[in-house]
Amino acid sequence: QVQLVESGGGMVQAGGSLRLSCAASGRTFTSSAAGWFRQAPGKEREFVAAINWGGVVTYYSESVKDRFNISRDNAKKQVDLQMNSLKPEDTAVYFCVADSLGTLTIHVRTPAHWDYWGQGTQVTVSP
């Protein structure tokens, strides 16, 4: 079992930055892939970024590529999402996720792939 708790959300103006953190507990986290999804009001959950168990391989959605950076520290059992050049369309609840596989596949972009979800943290970007 893996438990995930997000922090770092808040309100920022367009062009600003935020750093989200996800604190994990559970023995298997260091062998899990991890990632972030987001959900805006009235929209489906959207893949944002993922990182493999070793922190070497990363995937990003086209909408955040070159602006966001995902990283992890297995010693601290933590996954971070650095978000730069934020836009109003980035406004959403951001969820930390982890799986039981560890490696990244094409399926990581779908919510059903992920076994563990945090409660989410709100990010609001004003124009």
Output the radius of gyration: 13 Å
**How many strands, which pairing sense, and closed or not: the largest β-sheet?**
7 strands, mixed
Number of helices: 0
Number of strands: 11
Write the element-wise H/E pattern from the N-terminal end onward.
Answer: EEEEEEEEEEE
Report the principal-axis shape: globular
Uncertain stretches of 5 or more adjacent residues:
none
Q: Helix/strand/pairing class, anyone? A: mainly beta
What is the distance, rounded to the nearest whole angstrom, between the alpha carbons of the first and last residues? Answer: 40 Å
Based on the structure, what is the oligomeric state of the protein chains?
single chain
Strand content: over 45%
Overall helicity: under 10%
Q: Estimate the mean pLDDT confidence.
A: 95
Short recap of the structure:
The protein has 127 residues and is an all-beta fold.
Structure description:
It contains no helices and eleven strands. Strands 2, 4, 5, 6, 9, 10 and 11 form a seven-stranded mixed β-sheet that branches. It is globular, with a radius of gyration of 13 Å. Helices cover 0% and strands 46% of the residues. Strand 5 and strand 6 form a beta hairpin. The protein has 127 residues and is an all-beta fold.
Task: Give the topology, please.
Elements: E1 3-7, E2 10-13, E3 18-25, E4 34-39, E5 46-51, E6 58-60, E7 68-73, E8 78-83, E9 92-98, E10 116-117, E11 121-126
Parallel strand pairs: 2-11
Antiparallel strand pairs: 1-3, 3-8, 4-5, 4-9, 5-6, 7-8, 9-10, 9-11
